[in-house]
Amino acid sequence: MAIAGVAMVVLSGCGGMVDGKPTSGLYNPNRVGGMAVTEGPSGVRPNSPPPTGTVEGTDNGDIDKLALLSVNDLEDYWHENYSPVLPGTFTPVSGLQSYDSEVPGDMVCGNDTYEFANAMYCFESRIIAWDRGVLLPVAQKFFGEMAVNGVLAHEYGHALQMMANLINRRTSTLVAEQQADCFAGDYLRWVAEGNSTRFQMSTGEGLNYVLAGLLVLRDPLLTVFDNPDDGHGTALERISAFQLGFTSGVSACAGIDEDEIAKRNGDLPESTKVDVTFGTGGDVEIDEQVLTDLMEVLGVVFSPSDPPKLSTDSSDCPDAEDTPPASYCPSDNTIYVDMAALQELGTPANEANFVLLQGDNSALSVVTSRYALALQHERGMDMRGAEVGLRTACLTGVAQRAMSEELEVPSGRGLYLSAGDIDEAVAGLLSNGLAASDVDGGTVPAGFTRIVAFRSGVVNGDAEDCYTRFDQ
C-alpha cells in the first residue's frame, strides 16, 4: 500500500461460525460450490491402499510416499474422467522424480535443484518432479496432507494441457497456470465428494487449508519490471481459477484462455494484477494518520449520510461483541481500534519462511470491513448472521477496488492499493475471516465462500449489488 501525495496460521473465524438462510449459487453461506459445508478429517484415509510405482531419486521417506500416493489417485481420477470432455486419450506421465533442494549437485529438467524449493512438470520429458527437502514437508507441516496433494494436482494439470493440446509455445504463462489450478480444483471436488479411496477432505477447514497452501506456495506476483507474459496471476485470480474447476468441472478448465480470464476479471484496474510495492517495501506503518486517511477515503467511496467515527480508546459497546483488532459499535456508530493489535496484524510477514501473506492491508481491510458494517447499520439492516458477513466481505471488496484506482480526496493524501495488497486481504479472509464477519465477528466456516463474496465486490465494484445479492 502506498500513500498518495506524500510460521503457522490458525485458519478460523474470530467470533465463531454463523448459519444463514439458503440462497442460490456460489453465495449460499451453508454450501461450498453447491456442496454442503462439512468438517472432519482431511488427508490420507486410514484404510488407503499403499502407494504403487517408481520414483527416481527417492529416499523412500514419508513425503515421497505421500506424493506417490497423490499421483496414484490423480491418475485413477483422470483415467476415468479425461474423456470425452478432453480430446485424445489419457496417458499417465512418463516418470516421477524426487530431489532435495537443500543438497547441491542434482539437476531436474535442466534446472539446478539446489535451493530450488518447487514442484514442476517437465513438458519435453513428461516427468513430474518435486522437492522433498523443503517444499512438500512445509506444505504438509503447515497446511496438511491435502496441500501436498494439491501441489501435485496442479502439476498434473500441466500434463493434461499437453495431452489435450490446450496450450502451445505461444500460450501465456497466465493461461497455463490458471488452467492447471482449475484442473486441481476439479479433481479435489471429487475427493471432497468422498469418491477417492486414498484421500478425504472436508469442505470447511480442510478446503481452507488447501486454499491457504495455494496462496503460500504460489509463484511471485508480476511486477512492473517483469515481462507481462511471465505472470502467474494474483491470489484472487489463482483461487478464482481453482474455484472454477471445483464448481464447474473439466470443460470450464479447458475453456480458460486470455478471453475467459479477461471476462472473469471484468474491468479490474491494472493495479490489481501487478505488484507495484515490491514485497514488504511498499507497506505503510499503521498509525493514526493512516487510519484517518482510510476513513477519509472510505467516506469518498461510499458517501454515507452519517459516517462512523473512529476511536483508539477501549470499547464498552452495549449492543455488539468486541472483534479485535477492530470493532464496530452500532449504538454510538463508532469503529474502535486496538492500535497495538492492529499494528501487529499489519506487520509484514516474510514469505520466504513459507508463512501466509500478511502486511498493511491485512489490517486495513479489517478496519474497512467494520466501516462496511456501519453502512449496513445506516440502512437499518440486520447486523448479525451469515448474509451480514458475506455482505461485509462484498462491500470490503468494493472499497478495495476503489482504492486500486486514483481517488480524489479533500486532503490530497489518500491510499492506493496494488495486487500485493489485495492478496493480503485474501489471505486474511482465510486466516481470521474478520473481513467477512458480522458485528459480533461471526463468519461462515468456508473460506472458499468468503473469498467468493469478497471477489464479487472487487470485480463488480458496485455496493448496491452487495446489498441486493446478500439481502436477508
Protein model, in words:
This protein has 472 residues and is mainly alpha-helical. The protein has two domains: 2-18 and 276-469, no CATH class; 41-201 and 235-269. Helix content is 42%, strand content 9%. It has 15 helices and 14 strands. The protein has helices at 62-81, 135-143, 145-163, 173-192, 205-216, 235-248, 250-254, 258-265, 288-302, 339-345, 360-378, 386-402, 419-431, 447-460, 463-469; strands at 2-3, 31-32, 35-36, 43-44, 95-99, 107-108, 111-112, 119-122, 127-131, 199-200, 309-311, 326-329, 334-337, 415-416. It has a three-stranded mixed sheet with strand order 5-9-8, with helices on one face. A three-stranded mixed sheet has the order 11-13-12. Strand 6 (107-108) and strand 7 form a beta hairpin. Helix 2 (135-143) packs across helix 3 (145-163) and helix 9 crosses helix 11 (360-378). The protein is elongated. Residues 37-59, 305-327 are annotated as: Disordered. This is Peptidase.
